[in-house]
């Protein structure tokens, strides 16, 4: 079964005067996946999000949300967490949540019930009657997230969802996001926290200067950048092993030793050779797949510093 | 439920509960009523003060008052100044005046008193003297005619109402009251509108709102909600002022009788009120969306309201030449139309074609302003910390793609 498509972007381009913010981007976001939108500052991530949300019109290209234009009904199925957070400050938390919920098509009673549920889940029930301005920054972040998922949208777009959150709150938000995906919702997540992407994202789109740099499942992207090498930990004389071309010991060896393989030699061949070698004590053996962080720096870091 | 009504409801209820609103809605009219009552009692005390001075003596050295006629009971004649002074010192009289021998030629009257002299005493001495001077003329002339030679009755054409001096105050009051009430409620609602938009913009909540409602829904909802708030305020004011005036004085001010409201005037007032509220609100919304700080907004907004008050400066012109060129121009120009038309309607009649053209132009302008405001709104609300240039604004209003606009992306 092919998953249903939440977003389809075809060749979207957006200029600000002479600056090309988004340059011929095409991608799809499926229901039930976490889609990471990555890129350095000013690469066009927020512009792309705004085009999806119909805040901005693309100069050319086509964008479809749930298979069509962004109608009012479609808007009700989207939850958005802007990077620049914003809430009404002088009003009660619950009142504000209910208002924003009804704007997303909930009835006042539904909105109230859902708000109380979420406040309970986020351990903020006791603040329901407080004014938003009386809450700490972290609490406001959580309220803002609650507003994003209040109407149980089919698509959530979150811009830096974890910024400013402590590890415990980060976990809470992650759980809510996972829950949402398990219900079959789609998540577009823009973030700089690569380990979160590695952990959560199914697929990614990496852009730089508005152009697509990488696009596809996270695992495939990482495999694509995999070296012809393995990372090992243990004792023994690695360089004498058959099939090893070169040995690289990184950062005082804490991250293991990288063994580069001769052309034609597979990691399996090497593992077999190690098993045969009597002086090798092996504690860890894995393919040398770079972290997304490394890939990110490799793809956009250099180029940005040209 | 349509989201526009949700926005309208929220704006209405939220601002209704504001302390500032409650203050202006309830405390302000009470203050005004208080001041009015003070003023009225002060004016009437001046009128009654001739008695508060008690008896007033006089000494006639000129002979004008030898056979005094229509002498009020509290004016006491004295033989000479000495006995009058004695009476003053003993407190038998509060004051006395002397008509010196040369009064007929000089007109001088010397007044002696222990305290300040009320204006009313001055008037009654004058009346007394006029009456007595009259007796030296043709005895066939009635005293009243000498005392009040002119009883002016103005009769504006097409209105069928006699304007006597005592009712004409009301005729002036009508447009003035209308315009003040109108301006106050438009200003207050407009102020809330702008303040709310600035909050949503600077709090970045706007970004959330536009992914829930369309800019038109948001704008229309705000304007309707705050318009309803303005009307509420108006009703509270009229209620509080009306009730307390009724209670305070039993409804006996003469000039209020001039406040006759013809059906045409009432209908036109409602039409003009609604149209110009929507016009002003859209202009303010467009302005509010374009500027970041409340201060900038106030400056620009006050220009809008100032223009609306221009007709006030020409109230005399309206009186003198109700159908003159200036009056017609001010009636047709959309921003000045409401106040001008209402003033002219209150003063007399306005040709039907002028009203039709005036309302038509105003309606067109209002629709244009709403569309324009929505465009500016949609575009400008996501621009932070950047002042739009006039060129950009015009491009947006003409709906050509704005140039060189770089919203937040660069700050990422």
Structure overview:
- The complex is a heterodimer of chains A (306) and B (412).
- Chain A is α/β, with parallel strands linked by helices and 306 residues long.
- Chain A has helices at residues 45-52, 72-75, 93-103, 108-121, 137-149, 167-182, 194-200, 218-224, 267-276, 292-304; strands spanning 5-16, 19-30, 34-38, 60-65, 78-81, 155-159, 186-190, 203-208, 211-217, 229-235, 244-249, 257-261, 281-287.
- Chain A is built from ten helices and 13 strands.
- The longest helix of chain A has 16 residues, at 167-182.
- Chain A is globular and about 70 Å long.
- The model of chain A has no long low-confidence stretch (mean pLDDT 86).
- With 412 residues, chain B is mainly alpha-helical.
- Chain B folds into two domains: 3-34 and 165-411, no CATH class; 50-151, D-Maltodextrin-Binding Protein, domain 2, CATH 3.40.190.
- Chain B is 65% helix and 5% strand.
- Chain B contains 16 helices and six strands.
- Chain B has helices at 3-16, 19-52, 81-90, 103-106, 119-134, 143-147, 165-202, 205-209, 215-249, 263-290, 294-308, 315-320, 325-332, 337-347, 352-380, 390-398; strands at 56-60, 75-78, 95-99, 110-113, 153-154, 163-164.
- A four-stranded mixed sheet of chain B has the order 2-1-3-4, covered by helices on one side. A two-stranded antiparallel ribbon of chain B has the order 5-6.
- The longest helix of chain B has 38 residues, at 165-202.
- The radius of gyration of chain B is 31 Å and the shape is elongated.
- Residues 154-167, 250-259 and 401-412 of chain B have low confidence and may be disordered.
- The interface between A and B is medium-sized, with 34 and 32 residues.
